[in-house]
Amino acid sequence: MPQEQATLRSGQLQLARDGIRSRQPLLSLHEGSTEEGVAEDLKSIMSELNKEVVDLVWGKPSGGGVSASIFRRWSQGFVFSEHEQTALKQFEGGPCAVIAPVQAFLLKNILFSRESSNWRQMSEEEQKMALCSTLTEILESACASPSSGFCLVTWAKGQSPHTSTLSKTQTQPQTQTQGMAKPESSQSPQEQQPTALAAEDLGFEQFHSVLHKRTVLSVSDLREEVVSLYQSWRGCCGVLLFLYSVILTKGIENIRNEIQDPTEPLIDPIHGHGSQSLVNLLVTGHAVSNVWDGDRECSGMKLHGIHKQASVGFLTLMESLRYCKVGTFLKSPKFPIWILGSETHLSVFFTKEMLLVGPESPSEQARRVFQSFDPEDNGFIPESLLEDVMKALDLVSEPEYVSLVKSKLDPESLGIILLGPFLLEFFPDQDSGIPDSFPVYHYNGLKQSNHKERVEYVEGTALVLGFEDPMVRTDDTPVKRCLQTKWPYIELLWTTNRSPSLN
Question: What fold does the segment set 362-420 form as a domain?
Answer without folding.
Answer: Recoverin; domain 1 (1.10.238)
